[in-house]
Amino acid sequence: MSAEPKRTPAAAMTEPILTCDALEIGYGRRLLPPIQLSVCQGQFLGVVGRNGAGKTTFFRTLLGLIPPLGGRVTLPPALPIAYVPQVSALDALLPIRSRDVVAWGTLRGWSFLRPGRARAARDARDRALREADAAILAGQAYGELSQGQKQRVLFARMLASDPRLAFLDEPTAAMDVVAERHAFEGLVRLVRERQLTVVVVTHDVELCAKHADQVLFLDREDQSVIQGDPETVFTHPEFVRHYGPVKVDRGR
User: How many structural domains does the chain have?
Assistant: First the structure.
């Protein structure tokens, strides 16, 4: 999954697919200043910040799990959405094969009562495994895979649902440096090839600096909401004060 990802043509990134209009997040009390954000089709938004900065609350608000305190989140109607949790969110003791995990992404009602639909679901599952470079893992027990292999399976599950917008929560958490880089590069490749729009909460600002189209930096303590391209965000004094300088190298 280390193949060179293709950049999305600028013309393809003109249609807003996710908009936050003066969005206020929190549980009874506003955590951060209003968030103004627009993400276009095919773009990669990286959400960064320290622990407790408000990233999880923002993520849960976008997913509709908690209501906004003000403003709004706008998505196209009937938009196919996928959610990729942290690897650790799936119980490693589940006695299932990797192909079964991916098959969850194809569920559309009682497909086992409709043979044609069941066949289409199997085809989608197998295609997603190939695209995520996880076909060799299909018959293996999910719980016995490495962290990087598990993440490839979860990427395949995302693809099997054929989404236009995907939310990923710390997709490379608990990985070693090499596995993290490969997983991130694999995700970027899938995003570019599928023209997906993705929102990724990540702790790795260097990988985000290299691959993200937009970055949202949140800091609850300083009441900071900084949004823009990687160079704008990662050279902002508020960001540098906490993280230090981050090199933004867009070369591949």
Answer: 2
Rounded to 10°, the helix 147-160/115-131 angle is 140
Residues 75 and 180 in one domain: yes
Among 171, 165, 204, 186, CA closest to 43: 165
We report the CATH number of the domain holding residue 56 as: 3.40.50.300
How many CA atoms, within 13 angstroms, populate the side-chain half-sphere of residue 5? Answer: 26
Query: Phi, psi at residue 121, to the nearest 5°?
Result: -65, -40
Has residue 111 been placed in a domain?
yes
Give the chain's largest Cα–Cα span.
59
What are 146-197's pLDDT values in tens digits? Answer: 888 888 888 888 888 888 999 998 887 767 778 778 878 888 887 888 888 9
C-alpha to C-alpha distances, 8 to 15, 28, 42, nearest whole angstrom: 13, 39, 7
Q: Is 206 helix (H, G, I), strand (E, B) or coil?
A: helix
pLDDT beyond 70 at 83: yes
**Residue 127 CB coordination number (10 Å):** 16
